[in-house]
């Protein structure tokens, strides 16, 4: 499978716990994006990497959120001290610099439920 | 925050009919893209239209773009039950991220 993969697909956690999600982009893609999607809404941008450099962060990304892409390949998104408002689908996407006008390829998402 | 709005929020049609969804946005764009999302799944890219294009076709899809009105429409012709999904428009400006609308939930009844 050469698409974007995300792990886990579902995560249930208790409020206050830390969670970490992983995204593996399409192998030749050097850009990687994280989005958050709540029920009935479109995805909202969180952060973006070009290779290993985190180039943009949304104001939605509070200091409890941290994302890394240490070797410019897979990325992790960690949420510390989770709150019920963090419950959402977390989507990862990737694209290539030479790609057609920033067409992004999305993974299946990780659905987070904070109890 | 969302870039704009899709209209209608929900659309229900019979198989074989055409479905039209509209999208409005707020800022200048380089291109506008349409994505489909099946329930609880990731997004699938459908079609991209550049800011200097007015109409584009791909199979049963037809997209129009009016930059003076900051609006786009997606037409799905001869709809099928498998077209049932949420459809989102997304704009790409100078920044790399996409800004999505709130989506149209399309239901195609067999």
Measured between the Cα atoms of the first and last residue of chain A, the distance is 33 Å
Say how many strands of chain B there are. 11
Largest β sheet strand count, sense and barrel closure of chain A: 7 strands, mixed
Number of helices of chain A: 0
Largest sheet of chain B: 6 strands, mixed
Gyration radius of chain B (Cα, Å) is 13 Å
- H/E element order of chain B: EEEEEEEEEEE
* Proportion of helical residues of chain A: under 10%
Shape of chain A: globular
**What ranges of chain B have pLDDT less than 50 throughout 5 or more consecutive residues?**
none
| Overall pLDDT of chain A | 92
Compute the number of strand runs of chain A: 11
Could you say which overall geometry of chain B the principal axes of the C-alpha atoms support? globular
Show unreliable segments of chain A: none
Contiguous helical run count of chain B: 0
- For the termini of chain B, the CA-CA separation is 36 Å
Largest interface: A-B, 28 and 26 residues
Proportion of residues in extended strands of chain B: over 45%
Provide an overview of this structure.
The complex is a heterodimer of chains A (115) and B (110). Chain A is mainly beta and 115 residues long. Chain A is built from no helices and eleven strands. In chain A, strands 2, 4, 5, 6, 9, 10 and 11 form a seven-stranded mixed sheet that branches. The model of chain A has no long low-confidence stretch (mean pLDDT 92). Chain B has 110 residues and is mainly β. Chain B is built from no helices and eleven strands. Chain B has strands at residues 5-7, 10-14, 19-24, 31-37, 43-50, 55-58, 61-66, 71-76, 85-92, 98-100, 104-109. Chains A and B meet through strand 5, strand 9 and strand 10 of A and strand 4, strand 5, strand 9 and strand 10 of B.
